[in-house]
Write a structure and sequence with these properties.
Number of helices: 7
Largest sheet: 8 strands, mixed
Distance between the termini: 15 Å
Strand content: 25-35%
Shape: globular
Radius of gyration: 23 Å
Amino acid sequence: MNGIINVYKERGYTSHDVVAKLRGILKQKKIGHTGTLDPEAEGVLPVCLGKATKLCDLLAGHDKVYEAVMLLGQSTDTQDTTGTVLESATVTASEEEVREAVLSFEGPYEQIPPMYSALKVNGQKLCDLARAGKEVERKARPVVIHEITILEMDLPRVKMRVHCSIRTLCHDIGEKLGCHGCMDKLLRTRVERFCVEDSLTLSQIETIRDEERLEEIIIPIDRMFDEEPAVHLNEELSKAAHNGNALPLGVSESKPAAGQKIRVYDVDGAFVGLYQYEKERDRQHFRLLKMFYEK
């Protein structure tokens, strides 16, 4: 099976647990997820099957939207309530002061990643180092909080919808208010086009498998690029594409813009891969970006 399933990761499972269980449900080894969710977090986890595992890196960097509950008054080593409390303080800020502090983070800012994250430093995951009791210096990274919406406020808890990274944001808001803060609950509601309303739990996927309806929930690979123009090749150019060769400018019906991507299909209608327009001195062509064809 090749494609993507929109899985609802339930609380208590790691992202790797989901992949392992799906391998058993689908009787298929080649499966990968598109971005780690903490065991206590819930929500959208797109899972790639077969040839679609080549999409994992592409999807990991896509926009994500979360609904989170922030707990003010304490900081922890994991920046969520599963960790060890490091500091506590009384929350003296008013609701208006909290609202102002939260919304002040909308836009770009420099964020220091937590030790309990999947980011790598010198080839090692920070979370692995943290579990071994080691702490290393982390450089601040530029992040953009596209949008923050406060959904509920019942201090010391604040429920909000955030379009970007969330756990460290809760910590940083608490520090700005001078009372510390950490993440209490987390629900990922969207990854790229995958929404929580359409996601399926592992038990639901198992039921669909038993009903022999899996093809209804597996999204084809080429659908991930449906905003790009489709190009269908003749037999000669199909052979070139199967070997990953560049394609002439003439395969596109319109003049491509700089960086223009196209979806390429062979003479039999099979999806070959994603190509991108390139101009090198006096030469113009489409270069292979990602190959999905297998002989």
